[in-house]
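step 3/5: co-fold with adenosine monophosphate
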Amino acid sequence: MSLLYLCGSKIFMIQFILFGPPGSGKGTQAAKLAEKYDLYHISTGDLFRSETANKTTLGLKALEYMSQGQLVPDEITIGMLKNKISNLSEVSGFIYDGFPRTNPQAEALDCLLQESNQAIDLLLSLEVPEDEIVKRILNRGKTSGRPDDNDEAIIRKRIQVYLDETSIVFEHYAKLGKSRHINGIGTIEEIFERLCFELDQICK
Ligand code: AMP
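step 4/5: write tokens
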């Protein structure tokens, strides 16, 4: 199913943010949603990890922040996202996973979309209690190979950064009536159904 939709004679792409704290299941759900709705999945965390694995200047710089559980500075992150998007063609919509994580990132994304007469359509925020998040990330750390998934102090730091710097992005889109909370507890399929229900509303 594609989320391209018609309004008058114009075709719009869906611009969708999957939001929530680290370990809330964004990556897993984004991959499933991207497949079902034919959306291009952009994960800034994955982009940084790929740069780091290739030992690029950007990747090595990003690693300094990632390994401490801190956010990579906005100008680096926004530049990387713009670069990625400008090199894509023939995409029927986007799912943003792990971006925007600050208000300046949200504003930069809004401006970028505005250049092509588009805007964020929907932000869905996965809600998961902190202790459950820590448990999930430590479990993921057994196989993910991510150093930031193996250290409880770094995990708690990432959650704190989410609360201090990222959670306000929900409000940015709530003011526009675009943000919704989703219960992030349950099986992967149960949570997927909840997300699909909301996405289906905007294609009606
Ligand atoms: P994630 O895979 O989304 O959990 O991201 C892993 C790490 O990459 C984060 O803890 C940050 O250090 C960095 N990162 C990913 N996305 C962003 C972003 N939008 N802004 C700043 N840092 C980011």
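step 5/5: annotate
DSSP finds nine helices and seven strands in the chain.
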